[in-house]
Amino acid sequence: MLQALAGQLLVGLINGSFYALLSLGLAVIFGLLNVVNFAHGAQYMLGAFVAWIGLTYLGIGYWWALVLTPLVVGVLGMVFERLCLRRLQGLDPLYGLLLTFGVTLVLEGLFQNAFGISGNSYPVPSLLQGGTNLGFMFLPRYRAWVVVASVAVCLGSWLVIEKTRFGAYLRAGTENPPLLQAFGVNVPVMFTVTYGYGVALAAFAGVMAAPIYQVTPLMGSNVIMMVFAVVVIGGMGSILGSIVTGLGVGLIEGLTKFFYAPAADVVVFVVMALVLLLRPAGFFGRSR
Amino acid sequence: MTDAGVPPAEVLHVTGLHAFYGESHILHGIDFHVKAGEVVTLLGRNGSGRTTTLKAILGLVSRRTGSILINGREAIGLPSHLIARLGVGYCPEERGIFASLSAEENLTLLPKVGSHGMGLEEIYGMFPGLNERRKSPGTRLSGGEQQMLAMARVLRTGSSLLLLDEITEGLAPVIVQTLGRVVRRLRERGLTMILVEQNFRFAAPLADRHYLIERGRITDMIPKDELERRVPEIHGFLGV
Ligand SMILES: Nc1ncnc2c1ncn2[C@@H]1O[C@H](COP(=O)(O)OP(=O)(O)O)[C@@H](O)[C@H]1O
Ligand SMILES: [Mg+2]
Predict the structure, then answer these.
(1) B24 lines ligand 1 (CB under 6 A)
(2) Is residue A98 part of a domain?
(3) Has residue A102 been placed in a domain?
């Protein structure tokens, strides 16, 4: 009994780690660029695939993939921002949503064409195989790593945003980009870098996910709906809010699976609907 | 501040400036100039285009045409961060203090754009109130403190041309007096300033020249020595 509960909570915590990483990136991008980055799920999938391709065709292992993949996918994101997203600046955010939605469909289509719909598995790195028996449950080492690494990356990002100069620019730019630029800050470059960083976070999550879930072209679509729910609950644009809500939503999902499994898939959306009714700006959000 | 005989250089020379917000055509050919070390005001009724003139200089309007020479460099085609880096400091009418930054973060946020920026010591000496409120979120400060902060942060950057939009608006007389002293001190340091003011009594003794703006056009220029004679005319123009 306890074992089953602990097991579901762990699954919830793992899912929550991915929600937190992904919604953090979405929140940072939305905050500064005012773009709802619908391609976030596809960029997560791209991260998993780049790692898988690297391993399968080039023999690049997990640890290198963890560093290189976010760089590669982040740079692709920056190019996309520079060449495409930038042209939609100043228009209704709906255009950005449509563009990134289109990019999602294109990416998923390309990967389905090239690699088929069925999943590819990615081995757990040898250093993190096995696990520990905690007495009340068995804790696989890789899953513990995922939780620790995600929380560390999320908190690190939060510290950078709260404590550094670039973070201060980011916060100021989230409030009023044109004014910040009139003070001499190169805001267009900040847009590019910030978008690249959000995308790199998604790719990082994708690499971390590869040994746990199957690497498939549609893996992003499965998770992105949940991540949007997290962002709505936490409040669009709130950094700490998206981290806390991401983990919290994972846990709620896990608990529901334990107590009443059939409701697990909808509980988050019920919470989302309630939040929208009671606090439309989200738990941590400011209405704008 | 310049050697005798050599006329001071022009810091700003605006010719035929038109500015638009979307489809609305707001400025219809503004011409004026400011020499190094001068304090110049833009006087006009509400809605005459004074704020828009400052914003157009900084590139904060949707479209602008004409010529804006800043220290001899053409700025009409530059993005606004490069305009700031020509040495232009801006205090916006709504003050533009960032709510998610502490007072001190607001103060130190702006990149340096010139080499003669004031140090924090000197700034806290000039605005003692700010030192006590360093850790407070920027928008928790009183209106007067926010205005001091908005001024202080551009002084830190070393800007040589300050665009000050209605810095006395809505403030108590004591604070207006303090701001008057600050402007006088900055003038002694050789800073060049454009003051947009409703408060003519505040601006009159501080400025070398006054430009009158009406419906997006400069209609007249009044130098200091003609001011006294023309006060009634100016009051009529401003509708006070
Ligand atoms: N963002 C804007 N969009 C459209 N029109 C504007 C905007 N800001 C100001 N205006 C209009 O431009 C004109 C000049 O405004 P402004 O420059 O703010 O005047 P002032 O500072 O002299 O009071 C006014 O008619 C005002 O309604
Ligand atoms: Mg104004």
Answers:
(1) yes
(2) no
(3) no
User: Tens of pLDDT along A170-210?
Assistant: 999 999 999 999 999 999 999 999 999 999 999 999 999 99
* Assigned CATH class of B38-60+79-238: alpha beta
Using a CB cutoff of 5 Å, list residues around ligand 2, an ion: B 51, 93
**Secondary structure (DSSP) of A1-47:** -HHHHHHHHHHHHHHHHHHHHHHHHHHHHHHHH----TTHHHHHHHH
pTM of the model as a whole: 0.91
ipTM: 0.93
- Chain B hits for A86, CB-CB cut-off 8 Å, are none
Does residue A36 form part of some domain?
yes
Which domain, by its residues, includes A145?
2-89+139-278
Q: Which residues contact A86 (CB under 8 A, 6 or more apart)?
A: A188, A191
Task: Identify the closest residue of chain B to A91 by CA–CA distance.
Answer: B22
Ligand 1 atom showing the smallest separation from residue B52 Cα? 17
- How far B110 CA lies from chain A's nearest CA (Å)? 6
Domain annotation covers residue A81? yes
* Count of domains for chain A: 1
Amino acid making up residue B229: R
Phi, psi of B35, deg, nearest 5: -90, 160
**Which atom belonging to ligand 1 lies closest to the Cα atom of B48?**
22
Please give the residue of chain B at the shortest CA–CA distance from A187: B81
Give yes or no for residue B62 CB within 6 A of ligand 1: no
Q: Are strands B24-35 and B10-21 parallel, antiparallel or unpaired?
A: antiparallel
